[in-house]
Amino acid sequence: NYGYLLLEIIPHVPDGIVCFFPSYRYLEVVLSMWNDMGLVPGILKHKLLFVETTDALESSIALQHYRQSCDNGRGAVLLCVARGKVSEGVDFDRHYGRCVIVFGIPFVYTEGRTIKARLEFLRDEYQIREGDFLTFDAMRNAAQCVGRVIRGKDDYGILIFADNRYARSDKRSKLPQWISQYMTSSNINLSTEEAVTISRHFLK
């Protein structure tokens, strides 16, 4: 469904589209599936496609080419990772990000020693439940990703949270107000067709 959403929305979005995935591994798996399903040629029909990897140099080159494609009017899609290098320090203002899609929820990997110790500390010292902290942290990270697109009062873009879990009150309540105020009943739990229709009207 993620691939078909991207494929359907691409023709209606000018310039750049940035897509965030929860992890590098998940991005690789999904991209491989899109390739097997024959969706990648459909994407390339409208825009160039660039991918962030774990290699810093490769990712830097991909980002540079992505920007160049947006500058010259060809348009491009950048697939990157929440908590990756791109999400942490790169802005996609103006034509570099007319649409941002967050595929899934960027929960932190919980098997690492550091995060385990942090969760234990929060539970023992502040009685903060693991699930509450992980949800708060994931929503903060998702907001950081989409916030890379809207960088000024005159900027605009479409923000798509492509996971129906964002519609739940425990998730929505942890998003900043500048995002949650637009998550009304008419803008959540949308089908691909409904999301494309709203996006097309917004970008007219």
Secondary structure topology:
Layout: H1 2-9, E1 16-21, H2 24-36, H3 40-44, E2 48-51, H4 56-71, E3 76-81, H5 85-89, E4 99-103, H6 113-126, H7 130-146, E5 158-162, H8 169-172, H9 177-180, H10 192-202
Parallel strand pairs: 1-3, 1-4, 2-3, 4-5
Helix pairs in contact: 1-10
Question: How would you explain this protein's 3D organization?
Answer:
- The structure is a single chain.
- With 204 residues, the protein is of the alpha/beta class.
- The protein is 48% helix and 13% strand.
- It contains 10 helices and 5 strands; from the N terminus they run αβααβαβαβααβααα.
- A 5-stranded parallel beta sheet has the order 2-3-1-4-5, with helices on both faces.
- Helix 1 packs parallel to helix 10.
- The protein is globular, with a radius of gyration of 17 Å.
- The chain starts with a helix and ends with a helix.
- The model has no long low-confidence stretch (mean pLDDT 93).
Which structural category fits the helices and strands? alpha/beta
Listing every helix as H and every strand as E from the N terminus to the C terminus, the arrangement reads HEHHEHEHEHHEHHH
Total number of helices: 10
Largest sheet properties: 5 strands, parallel
- How much strand? 5-15%
Please bin the fraction of helical residues.
40-55%
How far is the first residue's CA from the last residue's CA?
A: 25 Å
Q: What is the CA-based Rg, rounded?
A: 17 Å
Which geometry do the CA atoms define? Answer: globular
Average per-residue pLDDT, rounded, comes to 93
Low-confidence stretches: none
Count of DSSP strands? 5
Strand order of the largest sheet: 2-3-1-4-5
